[in-house]
Amino acid sequence: MSLEFDQNLEKYTEVILKVGLNLQKGQRLLIFQTTFASFPLELAPFVEILVRKAYQLGARFVEVLWDHPQIHLIRFQHAPRDSFEEFPTWRRDVKLEFAEKGDAILGILASNPDLFIEQDPDLMDIRRRTSLKHNKPFNKLISKNATNWTVIAAPVDGWANKIFPNIAPDKRKTKLWDTIFDICRVKQKDPVSAWNDHNNKLHARRRFLNNKQYSTLKLKAPGTDLVIGLPKKHIWIGGSEKSQNGIVFTANLPTEEIFTLPHKDKIEGVVTATKPLNYAGSRIEDFKLKFSEGKVIEATAGKGQKFLDQFIKTDEGASRLGEIALVPHSSPISQSGLLFYNSLIDENASCHIALGRAYSPCLENGEKMSDEEFMNIGGNMSLIHVDFMIGSGEMDVDGILENGTSEPIMRSGEWAFEV
Ligand code: ZN
Ligand code: ZN
Could you say which of 1.10.240.10, 3.40.50.970, 3.40.1830.10, 3.40.50.720 is the CATH number of the domain covering 3-183? Predict the structure, then answer.
């Protein structure tokens, strides 16, 4: 690898630890895979750089929870069919212990999107539900921003092959690193201050929308005509935010979105996905959802119908929305023209919505509410939170004020208001 590459890699770890986590001196750090995506051992050199940098920035202790994906594949190929509810509870406990103590939490998404594509959907569903059930207390702390956390991406062979099939095989992974450096602003002269500027711009957008307190959003695009009611005292979030233990962090790298929670009972109409959804090892393509009184009443997919049906049936809240996020079509990720088969990145290329749990910080005092209080005001609860992309250069979004006045928020996929 070139000197320039090494320098970019170093700068990337700095952005992750300073902007993503804002790792504090004396803080402990847990690095792990996200719920369904484990990161392979080929990432060891990158993780070594991360760990070294974390200690240089003052970390007190760094733990890495390895989980090699091929081991899971072998399980699907050889384990008894009735064994997929087995779960290593110590993994759940480690994550929960770090989150409860207010340590920094870093999730790495680095999965080959095709690795589990041929596996039995029923076994995939059992594994998915088992993991969700065990990780519920941890996921709840994270969705409340109990501590500083972030999710980042790192290239692995299977993933790079999927995105760049037309370039020489030995160049694909470097190309994906390079792309991640670009979309994470790593190649800018001073990446940390570039992120501060970007966060300030996102904050200005969210301040504008928070002052408006629109009661309803109307989304229109080819195949989409969706009305989304917003609960009173909803809060738009975007860019950096403050954890409950007082640390300003940026939960996803990259991030281009401004988002809030829909009212779980006030969604009407039809929405068509504009990109495939990769979730828990499965892929769903060309899908469309119809909503009535907040609930999905019809779900059709060109590919992956069974996965779509399964995940909507995970629990009561899985067929309702927990997020509406606005992303301009001119976002650097969208302009790359690439499909990443990875929601962390793809969702930041496009307006998106999520089925399942809403983030409690999206409601005033939401972190302090009981589940019941949160749901009474319109917040959705579920084991899942699955983002899928609905935006395009053809999407218009209008905000309806309490008095019925309609104002343009986005036109042809771009912001329609100045801040
Ligand atoms: Zn989002
Ligand atoms: Zn989301």
Answer: 3.40.1830.10
